[in-house]
Amino acid sequence: MKLSSLLKNIVLGASLVAAATSTAYAQTKYKSEYKLSLVVNTTFPWGQATTIWSDLVRERTDGRINIKVYPGTSLVQGDQTREFTGIRQGIIDMAVGSTINWSPQVRELNLFSMPFLMPDYAAVDALTQGEVGKQIFERIEKAGVIPLAWGENGYRQLSNSQRPVKTPDDLKGLKLRVVGSPLYIDTFTALGANPVQMSWADAQPALASQAVDGQENPLSIYNGSKLFNVGQKYLTLWNYVNDPLIFVVNKEVWNSWTEEDREIVRQAAIDAGKQEVVIARKGMTADDDSLLKEIQAQNVEVHHLTAEEHAAFVAATKPVYDKWKERIGTDLVELAEKAIEQRAK
């Protein structure tokens, strides 16, 4: 074949590929903007996950998929427990959401809110990166939402404005803000507290006015929200639950993209999730406790539970654990318990 003919064939082939690609994108009817829901703002590690993901997707798709972050769960009027339903209905295109907030719609997600199930980060990783995580993703997809990757909000610690909490008795009578999860209501009721269901948007002014005495959240949110300035001067580190995050896309939106772009979005979510987990754990490990020191510098009284104190809280919440083990699914919970037992520390 002559060189000129060969060049013509190469050009023709490239043109056909370009035309086919262009036709594929045209048929998918991409939106000019995809709405990504977020409960907090983008300064927290959770929020940074959305920024990292959206930037990676925009860069890797050459702008074909343009994501706008909507913080404060504004797409569902600030009610974070309605977020998952909003994703299913198409009100929300994408989200990086909390397993807690979505647990009313996907009961298996309550696994991560089981009191004192996950003793350390290795236990969290054993669940999210193993067979348990796969089964939960399958359940979410059956519910009509496409799960792509895991992130992490972190271990939730307890703060209040009244007194140090070292034993279950210290919680008696305290009015504590909790998320809209029946499991959280059961847990704090069992401990003798008065749990009050409240969105995060409403929680901060309630703490400032002392309408509630305390709350539970990861230290990154406690510190980022400057809760020490609204009377939350007593902090108990008890690691009673960890709150993994999940990167998801509405099913119809997912199906509207080409296979190539789906893979780009999925890999971007995986990459963003890995980066976010590092950010979420920064300053809260034995090797780096800088965040904790920053909080203590604000005249916050911090108490680490001793092994004996920890055991008392575990015993007090055991009836709740047993009740919810059956509700979540005994097989799944036992699979999680086994994975944690066998984890590489």
What does this structure look like?
The structure is a single chain. This protein has 345 residues and is α/β, with parallel strands linked by helices. It has helices at 3-28, 45-60, 83-89, 99-102, 121-128, 131-142, 182-190, 200-208, 219-224, 251-256, 259-281, 290-296, 307-328, 330-341; strands spanning 34-37, 67-70, 94-98, 145-160, 175-178, 194-197, 214-218, 234-237, 242-250, 301-304. Helices cover 48% and strands 17% of the residues. It contains 14 helices and ten strands. α7 runs antiparallel to α13. Strands 1, 2, 3, 4, 5, 6, 7, 8, 9 and 10 form a ten-stranded mixed β-sheet that branches.
Structure keywords:
single chain, 345 residues, alpha/beta, ten-stranded mixed β-sheet, 14 helices, 10 strands, globular
Tally of contiguous helical segments: 14
Assign the structural class, choosing from mainly alpha, mainly beta, alpha/beta, alpha+beta, or little secondary structure.
alpha/beta
Strand content: 15-25%
- Number of DSSP E strands: 10
The major beta sheet can be summarized as: 10 strands, mixed
The coarse silhouette is globular
The helix fraction, in percent, is: 40-55%
Low-confidence stretches: 14-27
- Taking all Cα atoms into account, the compactness measure Rg is 23 Å
The sequence of SSEs as H and E is HEHEHEHHHEEHEHEHEEHHHEHH
Q: Termini separation (Å)?
A: 63 Å
The residue-averaged pLDDT reads: 92
In short:
This protein is of the alpha/beta class and 345 residues long. Helices cover 48% and strands 17% of the residues.
